[in-house]
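Our consortium's second objective concerns turning raw sequence data into structural hypotheses that experimental partners can test. To show how far this objective has progressed, the report includes one record in full. It was chosen at random from the queue rather than selected for favorable results. The single chain below, 550 residues long, was entered without modification.
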Amino acid sequence: MPAETSNLFDRWRSATLAPFHTRVFAVFWCASVVSSFGSLIQTVGASWLMATIDPSADRVALVQTAGTLPFFFLSLVAGALADTYDRRIIMIVAQSLMLLASIVLAVIALTSQVTPNILLAVTFMIGCGTASFAPAWQASIGDQVPRTQIAASVAANALGFNLARSIGPAIGGVIVALAGAAAAFVINAISYIGILGALLWWRPVPLANPLPPEPLFSAIAAGVRYVRLSPDLMAILFRSVMFTVPMAAVPSLMPIVARDLLEGGAQTYGFLLGSFGVGAMLGALASAALRTRFSSDILLRALCAFAFIALLVISQSHWVWLTLLAHILAGCLWTLGLANFNIAMQLSSPRWVTGRTLALYQTFAFAGLALGSWIWGHFAVAFNVREAFLIAGFVALLTFVFAHWLPVSVARMGSLDPQVMKDVAPSKVVLDPASGPIVITIEYRVLVQHASQFMFAINELGRIRRRDGARRWSVCQDLDAPEQWVERYESPTWLDYLRRQTRSTMGDQVVRQQLVGLIQSERGSVRRMLERPAGSEPIVGVDTLEVYSL
């Protein structure tokens, strides 16, 4: 083998296989692949069983809906729980729920007591478990491997899933044909044992946090607020929708392509499905190596350009072999796109909110897929399948153009690590954790020639404070002493104030250092005040008070 080829192979192997050197990741990868096989086999069994007990097309389609619907309304809740409670416990509970539901379905199927409503209800319960498991699972990757290997780990998990997706349905079809749907349900139940065992064996190092967990709805609001006030994360979410909407034409219209464009049958559809799966595996294998050569934005923009080519070829092709090649390309783009959006989201989120940001990404991606499937289905009916794919291709090309104004950027390594801060100074009055609102004012003295730069820096700092939980943020300039400025913001309670103090990252320090260079002293004069309603009693001063150590 030539030296250059050998070096390329070594770089690919190093980038792709690095996570497998970590024992925990390797164990979980194997267990999750087995579980993915079981889930896909179960899906085939459930769809076929519904087709035999109630052959109406809408009922059969509801099986897929019942399994995916929980992602729309449970993802954010699950993400908040993953950030505020022990992720390992959440995953154990979710897997146990799926195991129990699978056992119930297997027993009912073995006793021939299955009805359409029971099948949909149990499938829905399994979907709830999957939706609850996914954010904690994705966020736990950072607990399994070093941050430098997160990208390769996400790609490796995508490879495992697409391996199961390529082979699992075919295996499921053979099992259902030979032994019936009940056997598929039994196999799915058994497949959960491996990942449950891995979770029980795993003992991650818990993050030290002396504060009690946030209430669920406050945690959800904090996650949404963090993403809304993070331009980089918002760009990732919108770009993910812009990517999935045109690409949704491929999986949603694949049976119609086989039937109408290629004039084939179930075998042709199977070839298209297999080609898409092969492409997805190739994309997963190439992901880590491509990331070492290209930035996330360049890679994702290139995917949009290649998506135009794949969709254009599918729309115009009259040959099976050419359409198969286009589906291989589409499958490759599909995995590369979703995996790299996932990676960008993880690497651009601090650990305290990763579960929620990934849940929002998951919600946006599923919404884009659902919206795209609906749009291209209606276009195929209103016009024809070829024109639907052609329009989808031009939408992908427009995405390539618009991406110039909505770039995807990933935080540099280490910038989202928590900033090591001194303990919060104890207050001089007796405070309950629920006391509030807590009003913070900071006075700055800024020379007039630095005022414009100060305004830019203080507004950026205000965005960071609001992103981390501050409310009613404002900055004022003294009319009688223009060099005096006052920054003001609130925390709803003393406990919320303490929580916000733990969320500062090393990247945030860049803005604070800019301010230090613009103000007259080393730091502003800080006052912490408790808002007192009319008629309230005065608070009692103390010499010392035990507070949470941060």
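The partners drew two points from this record. Residues 278 and 328 are 6 Å apart (CA to CA). Confidence is low (pLDDT under 50) at residues 542-550. Both points have been shared with the crystallography group to help prioritize constructs.
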